[in-house]
Amino acid sequence: MKPLDEFDQKIIEILRKDGRISYRDLAVKVGISNVAVRDRINKLLRRGYIKGFFALADSRMIGREVATIFEVEATTNDFSEVVESLARREEVTKVYEKVGVPKLFAHASFQNIDEMQRFSEELYRMKGVVNVSSSMIYKRHKFDPSLDI
Length: 149
Known about the structure:
Layout: H1 6-17, H2 23-30, H3 34-46, E1 66-74, H4 79-88, E2 92-97, E3 103-110, H5 113-125, E4 129-136
Antiparallel strand pairs: 1-3, 1-4, 2-3
């Protein structure tokens, strides 16, 4: 990918902190015209530098009180199926693949402990799953959803 110039970098930096900023206010902060800001944002979207814009909901306020990280080990033959199955689940917000052993890390949020336990039991029964361990998240110290990792 082509490196970004200073204007595009500044646009992304500002949008990461405030995705609702107006073109006009963004143009003032970056030092270019409104039209140039709009064109640059459209270009950044088309090229995939910006994946989209969304509302960040507070999981607890919308009834998702229990957050858990699952470490899921799967057989090599069924690994893709396990990944796809986890990714389809509404409770699952992130799925990461670990290098080496066919393991996944899945973050999920639930309304309560009972819902989390049912999900865990379903994981154990899933075809191709060899082992599951889980850790309930007690407290979040840093969270930056503005970078897609």
